[in-house]
Amino acid sequence: MTSSIIHCQQLTHVYSGKAALANVSFELDAGEPVGLVGPNGAGKTTLLSILSGILRPTSGTVRLFGQPPGATQLIGKVAALPQVARLDPSFTIIEQLIFYARLQGFTRTQAALEAGRVLEEVSLTEGTHEKPPALSHGMAKRVAIAQTLIGKPALVLLDEPTAGLDPVNVRTVRAIITERSPATTFIISSHDLAELDRLCKHILLLENAVLQPQTIGLNEEQAGTRFITLQMETGPAREVIAELQVLEGVLQVTNPQKNELVVAYDPNLQPQMDLQLMQCLNSHHWQYRQLTHGKTLEEKLFFHD
Amino acid sequence: MHPGFFSHILLISQFELKRSFATRSGLLSIVTFAVVWCVILFYPLRFSAELLMQEKGLMPGFSFVGAIGFGSIQQWPIPEFGLFWHFALLIFPLLSIMLAADQTCSDRERGTLRFIVARSSRDRVFFGRFVGVIVIQTLLISATASSTLALVLYRDAALFSSALPDLLVVTVNLILAVLPFTAMMAALSATVKSARQATVWAILIWIFLAGIIGGFAYYLPTLGFLKLLVPGYQLSALAQLSGWQTLQLAYVPLLQSLILLALGRWIMARQPL
Asked: What is the largest CA-CA distance in chain A?
C-alpha cells in the first residue's frame, strides 16, 4: 500500500512581482527517488524551499505527511539539503552535528555516535574537529549531506547534492541514495540528467514556474514503442542510420547528437533488438561505446516530439 | 519521540552560552568586557564611593553629588551599590544592544538557520536564542554586581549582611532593564541582514521613537502613555529610586518585552530563511 507523503495544491510563489512557481499541484507517494529538473530559474529551488519550510508560498497549500512544512511533527521525519547553506563558523563540524542530533531527540552519547556515523557515511572521518572555514567546498557539501542523514528521515529533499563534488564522492552520494531507498524517499533537484537517469524512476519537470504534467512516471515504457540509445565510437552516422533503418522492427533512427543514435522499435516485431543491433554493428566492424535501453533523460525531457 | 518546546529552548540557549563562553570569539568579548569593567570598578566606582564617604557630614545641608544631579545615590546605604546602579543602568542597556544584535541575522544570511529550523521550529529558535542571550547577560550582571560586593567587603567586611539585599535588588532590576533591549534586538535581528545593521537600526528607531513620542506627548499630553513603548523609558525614573522601591517600575520593561517579543515572533514566522 502506498501513501501520499507530499501533497501540493495550486502552489504559487511570487518574487518581486514575478512568479517563481505558478499553480503547481502534485502528489507523491513514498518510494523510489524522484528527480526534479528544469532550466535555471524554473522554480526548483523555490519548490524545495517551500517543501522544507524555509519559504512560505504566496498561495496554495502544501502538506508533508499531512502536516504543513516546518511543523514540529515533521522533526526527524523530513530532512533537507538547501542549495545555499553554510554551517556556523564558530563551532566545529562535529559539535554542530551533535547539536542537530540532540535537537532531533538523541541523548548526548547517542548524538555523538550518530554524528560520527553520518560523517563516516559521506566518507568524512578526518577534519571533523575542524571549523567550517577550514573545509573545501566538496567537504562542506558532504557535511551538509551528512546532516540530512541524521536519524532515519522518511523524506530527504536534496537541492543539487552532487554539484561541486568529485566523481568519487558523487558515487558515494549515489550509493547512499540507492542504499536508503525506498525506506527513505529522496527528492533530488539536479542539472546532472545522467545522474538522475540512474537514480530516479519518476521525474518532475518544472519549466517557467509551471510543472509539466506529462513528466511523472517518465521511465515507464510507452506501449507499442521502445527505444535504444546507441553511443558510437566510430562509424559514419549516415551509413549507420541507413543500415539500422532497414532492420526488422525498427520504426525510426534519429541522430540527436554527434555519435549518438536513438533507435525506436516495435518489440512485438523484434523482441531482441539489442542483439540484432550488435550483430549489425559487428558485421560492419563499427565500434560502439554504449548501448542503453530507453532514451536518455535529456532526450525524454527536452527533445521529445 | 522528539524533544518538546522547553527542551529545545534549553538546548538552543545552552548552545548560545557555549558560543559566548567556549569559543575563541566569545571568550575574547568576555575578556574585553571584564577588563573594561575592572577599570570602571577600580577607578571611577571606587574613587567616587570614597568621595561619597568623605563627603558625609563634611558640610551639613550641602552635597556636591546632589548638586550635580546624582543625589539619589545618597539614598543607598552602601554608596558602592548606588554608584554601581547608576553605571550599570547606562552600561548594560548599551551592552545589550551590542550583545543581542546577532541573535538570528547572520545565521539566517549564512543559511545555518535552515539546518536548525529543519529539526526545531522558528518559534523555538527565536525564543531559545532570546533566552540564551538573557542568561549570558544575567551572568555578566551577576558577575559585576558580585565584584561590587567584593569591593564593599574589602572596605568593610561587616557590611556583608546589609550589602546582600542591595546585590539582589540591582541584579533583579538590571535583568529587567535589559529585557526590552534584548527583545528589541531579537525582533530587529529577525529582520535585518547583519548585527551591524541591527545595531544601527536599534539606535535610529530608539532615537526617532523617543523623539516622535516625546514631541506628541509635549503637544498632546494625553498621548504621554505612548512613552511606555520606548525601551529604557523607565531608566531615568529608576535612577532616582533605591532599594526595593526600584521594582515599582518593573511592569514597564516586562510589558515592553512582551510586545517586542510578539512582534519579533511575528516577523520570524514570515521571514524567508
From this structure: 69
